[in-house]
Amino acid sequence: GAGVSQTPSNKVTEKGKYVELRCDPISGHTALYWYRQSLGQGPEFLIYFQGTGAADDSGLPNDRFFAVRPEGSVSTLKIQRTERGDSAVYLCASSRDGMSTDTQYFGPGTRLTVL
Amino acid sequence: KQEVTQIPAALSVPEGENLVLNCSFTDSAIYNLQWFRQDPGKGLTSLLLIQSSQREQTSGRLNASLDKSSGRSTLYIAASQPGDSATYLCAVSGTGSARQLTFGSGTQLTVLP
Fold this sequence. Notes:
The complex is a heterodimer of chains A (about 120) and B (about 110). Chain A is an all-beta fold. Chain A contains no helices and eleven strands. Chain A has strands spanning about 5, 10-15, 20-25, 30-35, 45-50, 55, 65-70, 75-80, 90-95, 105, 110-115. The radius of gyration of chain A is 13 Å and the shape is globular. Chain B has about 110 residues and is mostly beta strands. Chain B is about 0% helix and about 60% strand. Chain B is built from no helices and eleven strands. Chain B has strands at about 5, 10-15, 20-25, 30-40, 45-50, 55-60, 60-65, 70-75, 85-95, 100-105, 105-110. Chain B is globular and about 40 Å long. At the A-B interface, β4, β5, β9 and β10 of A face β4, β5, β9 and β10 of B.
């Protein structure tokens, strides 16, 4: 079956612009996660959804970052007033129901470059 | 705050060698530990997941062990092949939030033909 997909694969924007990154999880997976990966580092947790609600948003760096999952499937990560330091690969993952026994399945990521 | 460290940061071996990648974590209160593989420009592929109650997991040429009390895990790769070349990431799921993963920075493995 289809895995986690993310669009766009690459996004180049200018400082101060608004961007939206999309994640399509594996069908039927209720848990969805966003991570951010800087060059040479492991991914860092941003936010976790269980169904439509954000169960844990403790990793969002500041209020310029926001994510939604209105129907419990597709999620959008929104970044306002982008800064050069936001440049990174944004990874989305999903798991069956968010239990600690679940494997998280990752998408290919969106590479964001802020000029 | 949980911290995950992976040593070495990079490793180069000739084809056919057996090798061990190391992962350590500071807070032993974890739910599980996962090993992932990441190819350049790609997402992460889960290799093995070890629950906190388990000591090891095996899949093909891969064997992962977990010593929760000492905060250590190893990934053993037998008979390495050039196709094993990738970055290997270790991640733990903690009890504070059972869902989010805390990752190490990875070990970049190169297997020379």
